[in-house]
Write the structure tokens for this entry.
Amino acid sequence: MTRRKNMVRFPGNWLRERETLLHHTAATVFICVFAMSLHASEDESQLAQRGRHLVELGYTRVDGFDGDIFLLEPAYTYSYSRNLRISIATQLASLEVPAADEPGGAEDVNETGQGDSSLIIQYDPGANLTSNPWVPDTIGLFGSVLMPTGDTDRGLSGDTWSASIGAGWPIILSETFLAAPTIIYSSTFAHGDDAVPLEELGVGVSLLWLSPVGAWIGIEPFISWDFENSEAIDALSLIVGKSFRNGLGFDLQWGNRRRAENFAKRDDEFLIFKVHWQFGAPPRNL
């Protein structure tokens, strides 16, 4: 998101947080224990939904140091094959920034509207991709673009394009446990007047445990080098989720990202709740 004239430092903060959410919403995870006991008798083949289509609706709250950000994010993933999948998402954003305490300071900001949008393309020669919601966005070779479709004047856009490329290597440790080390490079381009440049190189690992009853638990530590501020930034995400045999499900994710010191008064925390529906015939191999 971008600031208005009185929203000092806000666009860079939100753009960095948006990059974290974009790459770790599905990639950071592990699984919901209480649902296992409730559905332990269900047929695993019925729970292993491998449809081509995944529709998601996420609600995100970011506890930023300048104010609160709320996002309603519809997303769609299409698995062309078990080697290739494409995801698109957009945001309905709400920004709340309290007035400055000092005399003559900025007034309260409360804006709601269209936010930025994103596109992710993944290719994995090992055919590990499906539309399953627990499959990390960082498996195989991947690229993403964040597009400034929001209203910059109202503070609902980063006012810049952002691109990321990376690679992840799935390591199957057992039938239910997966590790996926990842490297990601991100940079902004075609900046608008209110944009804050971003250039980062990061490494992390997604650790995922998937139960036979369609539940999962995940964790992802991540560290990146911020070239703009010459500083290392670390982040941590945790997630629990559950998919049912009819293709419906949910997941809940919590994360923390330490800020570059010249941007932050304190670290950011975010909370994401998502519901999903997976359907369609299984994707084929290329």
